[in-house]
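Quick one, tokens below:
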């Protein structure tokens, strides 16, 4: 089978797009966009969900990646560039285990809960 056809089939199987919200889904992962978050305990509370089109018009916004309805990554976009990223890892019981913080320079900090 032609390699490009196979890749296309695999991509179609694992990814689909909701054309109304530009919400991309990979297997059980999906993205949502937010204006801001509140609080400083992890995982942070995301507030004011917005559409992809609304996010593109803002100077800053947050992209949240969910897997099985748990947030696994939050990225702040500031002037079209990543400003910081939180990566969440959960234990087998679904309780937050670690938070990895990546700043705009790529420096990483790991926090165990």
């Amino acid at each position: 089978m032609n390699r490009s056809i196979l890749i296309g089939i695999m991509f179609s199987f694992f990814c689909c797009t909701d054309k109304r919200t530009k919400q991309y889904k990979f297997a059980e992962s999906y993205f949502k966009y937010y204006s801001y978050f509140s609080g400083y305990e992890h995982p942070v509370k995301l507030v004011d969900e917005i559409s992809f089109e609304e996010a593109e018009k803002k100077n800053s916004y947050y992209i949240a990646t969910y897997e099985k309805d748990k947030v696994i990554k939050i990225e702040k976009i500031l002037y079209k560039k990543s400003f910081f990223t939180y990566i969440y890892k959960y234990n087998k019981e679904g309780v937050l285990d670690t938070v990895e913080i990546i700043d705009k320079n790529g420096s990483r900090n790991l926090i165990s809960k």
